[in-house]
Amino acid sequence: MANYYSDHPEIGFHLNHPLMERIVELKEKFYADKEKFEDAPVDYEDAIENYKQILDITGDVAANIIEPNSEDVDLEGPHLENGRMIYASKTYENLDATRKAGLHGISMPRRYGGLNIPNTVFSMLSEVISAADAGFQNIWSLQSCIDTLYEFGSEEQRQQFIPRVCAGEGMSMDLTEPDAGSDLQRVMLKATFDEKENCWRLNGVKRFITNGDSDIHLVLARSEEGTHDGRGLSMFIYDKRDGGVNVRHIEHKLGIHGSPTCELTYKNAKAQLCGSTRLGLIKYVMALMNGARLGIAAQSVGVEQEAYNEGLAYAKERAQFGEKIINFPAVYDMLSRMKAKLDAGRSLLYMTARYVDIYKCLEDIERDRKLTPEEKQEMKKYQRLADAFTPLAKGMNSEYANQNAYDAISIHGGSGFIMEYKSQRLFRDARIFSIYEGTTQLQVVAAIRYITNGTMLNNIKEMCANVADSALKARVEKLIPVYEEALAYVKGLENQDAQDFLARRLYDMTAELVMSLLILDDANRAPELFEKSANVYVRMTEEDVCGKAAYIKNFRVEDLESFKAAEDVENK
After folding, report:
1. Torsions phi, psi for 202 (to 5 deg)
2. Greatest CA separation found in the chain?
3. What is the pLDDT along the chain (572 residues), one digit of tens a residue?
4. Closest CA to 133 of 58, 79, 200
5. Is 215 exposed, middle or buried (0-12, 13-18, 19+ CB in 10 A)?
C-alpha cells in the first residue's frame, strides 16, 4: 500500500539532523510531561519514534484517502449557500480522516489536548499532505494559526480556543481587504469597543481569505480611530458561533480548487482582543506571516515531489522512436534538475524549520522561567537565522514548485495539457505559491537586508567551513568570491533603484549557494540518497551564479533608463 511518507526516505532523513536532539529537549521542556501524560516521550529516541509513527499515519491517510479524493475535489470545489461556504463533498471525507487520525492540534501543548510536535515535523506533515492535495493542505495547515493565539493570547483565551482546534475545528487569518493586499497598513476593517457588552465589534469587508468560513478567525482590524498606518491596527479573535460574519463570495480560481477563498462581510461581529492594541500588524501579524510562509514552503516541496513523481513515471513508460523517453538526454536532464531542486529545496525548508523551532521553544520556556544568559544568546542567534532563511525557503521553493510542475507537463508532451492527467492540476495549484503570503518579490525585500549587510555571506562561509572537503565543495568555494564581488559591486552603486533592480539576482545567488552547501552536507551523510542531486545542483549553481555575477558586473546605473524606456514604448 502506498505511503507518502515511507515511500520517500529523503523526508525521514531530515529527522536525523544533529540539531534535532536540542529541538526535542526544548520542545519537551526537558521531558517534563512524562510524569503527567501517558503519551509523552521519556527521552529523545522515544520522541523520534513518536514522530515517525505520526508521519507514517499521515503518509497513509495522504496516499490512500486524500490523493484519491483530489480529482473529485478539484472538479467540485466549494460553493456558497445562504451566506455560508460549503466544502466539496470529498473535503469532508478528508477532514474526517485527519480528525480520526488525530492530526489536529499538532504543535499545541498536551495540557490543551495537543500533540506538542515541533515545527520541523509539522512541516514534514504539511509536505506529505500537500503532495496528496495542495488545496486540502491549505485547510488542514491553517491550524497553525493557533500558534499565534497561544503566543500572544491570554490563558483564558487559550483554554477557550486551543482545545477546539485540537479537536479538529478550522481556522483562518483574515488580513487582506479589497484595498489592502500586500500593503496591510491600509487595512480599514473597523474595530470599536462595545462598553455595554464589554466586547469589541468588527465592521467591514475582508477579501481573499483562505478557509474564510472557518470556526475561529484571527482578524486584523483598525482599533484606533483616525489612524491610517500600521500603528492603529490590532489583532482580534472572532468565533463563528457568535455570528455576524457572512461569506459574500467564493473566488473562482485557477488552482487549489478545494481551498475556499472567500470574501467576508463583518456586521457588528463580536470579537475578543488578542494581546495588546496597536501591535496587530507590527508584532502579531509578522509572527503569523512568518509561520504561514514556512507553511507555503512545505506546501511547495510537496508539489515539487509530486510533479517529479509524475514526470518520472511517465518518462519510464512513454516510448518514442522505439525507445523510452527517459533515455533521451533532454528528458533525463530535465528530471535530474527537478530532483536536485526538490532535494535542495527540502533541505532549505527543514533547516529553516529547525532554526524556527529552537528560538520559538526558548521563547516558550521564557514564559515559565528566566532564561540563562547562554539560552538568551542561543535564542537570539536562531531567531536571526530564522528571519534570514524564511524568505529564502518560501521564495525559492515556491518558484521551484512552479518550475517542476511546468517541467512535468513538458515531459508529458501533449498529454500534459490534457485535463485527465494530474500534471496539469499540479501546474495550476503551484502558480499561487509564489504569490500568496507574500510574492517572491516581497520575499526578496524581506531577505535583502540580511544579504547586503553581510549576514548571509558570513553564514555561507561558516556553512562552507563545516562541510567535509570534496571536489564538489571546492567548486562551491570558488563561487563564494564571485558572489562576494557581485555583492560589493551592487552596494557600491549607491543608487537605491539600481540596488532594488539587482536585488533578485543577489537573492537567487544567495539561496543557491546556501542550498548547494546544504545538499553537499546531506550527500556526505547519505550519499545513496543525495549524491546525484548534489552533483546536479552544484552544476546548476555554477551556471546561475556565474551568469548573474556577469550581469551585475556589467550593469550601470544609467542602464535603468533603457528599461524604463522599454516600458514607455509598451504603454503607448
Report:
1. -115, 135
2. 80
3. 999 999 999 999 999 999 999 999 999 999 999 999 999 999 999 999 999 999 999 999 999 999 999 999 999 999 999 999 999 999 999 999 999 999 999 999 999 999 999 999 999 999 999 999 999 999 999 999 999 999 999 999 999 999 999 999 999 999 999 988 888 999 999 999 999 999 999 999 999 999 999 999 999 999 999 999 999 999 999 999 999 999 999 999 999 999 999 999 999 999 999 999 999 999 999 999 999 999 999 999 999 999 999 999 999 999 999 999 999 999 999 999 999 999 999 999 999 999 999 999 999 999 999 999 999 999 999 999 999 999 999 999 999 999 999 999 999 999 999 999 999 999 999 999 999 999 999 999 999 999 999 999 999 999 999 999 999 999 999 999 999 999 999 999 989 999 999 999 999 999 999 999 999 999 999 999 999 999 999 999 999 999 999 999 999 999 999 988 655 555 55
4. 58
5. middle
Q: How far apart are alpha carbons 158 and 150 in whole angstroms?
A: 6
The DSSP element (H or E) to which 245 belongs, if any, is strand 245-250
pTM above 0.85, yes or no: yes
Spatial CB neighbours of 439, under 8 Å, sequence gap ≥ 6: 182
How many other C-beta atoms are found inside a 10 Å radius of the C-beta of residue 364? Answer: 15
Closest among 113, 137, 128 to 51, alpha carbons compared: 128
CA dist 248 to 81, 202, 209, Å?
10, 16, 11
In order, the DSSP letters of 478-500 are HHHHHHHHHHHHHHHT--HHHHH
Closest by CA position to 49, among listed 6, 15, 100: 15
Best CA proximity match to 178, nearest among 170, 168, 188: 188
Q: CA 194, 196, 198 angle in degrees (round to 5)? A: 60
DSSP 144-172: GGHHHHHHHS-HHHHHHHHHHHHTT--EE
The answer to whether 393 touches 434, Cβ cutoff 8 Å, is no
